[in-house]
Specification:
single chain, alpha+beta, Heat Shock Protein 90, 3 domains
């Protein structure tokens, strides 16, 4: 609370004081027994101003100490304080109301936090439990491969794989808030991680007759293998989903002054311009995702973007309708992080 804001709040008191001084001078001027003297009136006005200034200064200091209890540093996570030391009845009303709201707020916050943790534990437990029957169904599907038609078998395996992908999305989504407890940054071969991801999706490439190309030299990048594998799987699955039979997906590697780049380019249907700025939003499916054949959940690219940022990577997208889509994943150099931190400290 600044002194200027305090004076604005005391505007009516100051106005009353000015009115009282004007009224005093007017009465003295009308009183015939009193010899009217502007010098005496000025001294009265000056004395009153000094007394008013002293009163406002002392009152401001007392109010300031009380209101400072509510001034929080937005750059730090601190507990919301309780008010105390109210001087007036008005301040006591504010103090009692605020402290009661403060208590209810933290009770509600603790309740929500507990429910969130219980829900997360349930989701994690459910994901791990559902993986057991999914694995069993996969094994059963392999045993009946010769008993059903190839078309039916492919449909069965595709649906099982889609179920497994959705379960993975739920698991990684539930772990977003606790990301710092579940990752390990190390140096990995980028090409090896990509090849492993492609092997997991080989059935989709074969069924849709999509060609795959790997271009460029291998580079070592600092990342978490498990999380990066999930990110790449989302990008590649997205390319397969929206690329027609006979198309192609190309993954290329490059390097420049900013860092190492991984580019996932497809020859699919492309993304409309009006959807391009929103494809990383949670739950956004766009015109393409509403297609009955693709039936997008709107979580894959959101998770890919969120996890990339948490790992210190940067995910970009370019697309043209009818020509395809390209996702670029940047792994910045260490000096890039250092320069970013240094610039942050200089501007802090």
């Amino acid at each position: 609370m600044t002194f200027f804001n305090y004076l604005k709040d005391q505007f009516r008191l100051i106005l009353l004081w000015l009115g009282f001084n004007c009224l005093t001078g007017f009465i003295l001027w009308l009183t015939p027994e009193v010899k009217f003297n502007f010098a005496s009136l000025f001294y009265i006005f000056l004395l009153g101003m000094i007394l008013l200034a002293i009163f406002l200064g002392l009152d401001y200091q007392q109010r300031k100490r009380w209101w400072q209890q509510l001034e929080l540093d937005s750059d730090q996570y601190v507990e919301t304080p309780s008010l105390s030391n109210a001087r007036t009845y008005e301040e006591e009303l504010y103090q009692e109301y605020f402290n009661e709201m403060h208590r209810e707020h933290f009770l509600l916050l603790n309740n929500v936090k507990q429910q969130s943790e219980e829900q997360k534990d349930y989701i994690d437990s459910w994901v791990h439990e559902i993986k057991v029957p999914l694995a069993s169904l996969t094994l059963i599907s392999e045993t009946i491969e010769d008993d059903i038609s190839e078309k039916r078998y492919n449909q069965l395996r595709n649906n099982l794989n889609r179920m497994d992908d959705y379960v993975e999305q739920v698991l990684y989504y539930s772990r977003l808030d606790s990301f710092s407890k579940d990752y390990l940054i190390n140096s990995y071969s980028l090409k090896r991680i990509v090849q492993q991801t492609i092997r997991d999706s080989k059935e989709y490439f074969i069924q849709k007759n999509i060609r795959f190309s790997l271009v460029g030299e291998d580079y070592a990048v600092l990342t978490d293998e498990k999380w990066l594998h999930f990110i790449l799987n989302q990008l590649i699955s997205n390319g397969i989903k929206y690329t027609e039979s006979g198309g192609s997906i190309t993954i290329s590697f490059s390097k420049n002054e900013r860092g190492t780049w991984l580019n996932v380019a497809d020859t699919g249907i492309g993304i409309p311009t009006e959807d391009l700025q929103r494809i990383f939003d949670k739950g956004f499916t766009g015109n393409n995702g509403r297609n009955e054949e693709t039936n997008s959940t709107g979580l894959g690219l959101y998770l890919a973007k969120s996890l990339s940022e948490k790992l210190g990577h940067h995910l970009y997208v370019e697309s043209q309708v009818g020509k395809g889509t390209s996702f670029q994943l940047l792994f910045p150099h260490l000096n890039y992080y250092a320069e970013t931190d240094e610039n942050f400290m200089l501007h802090d």
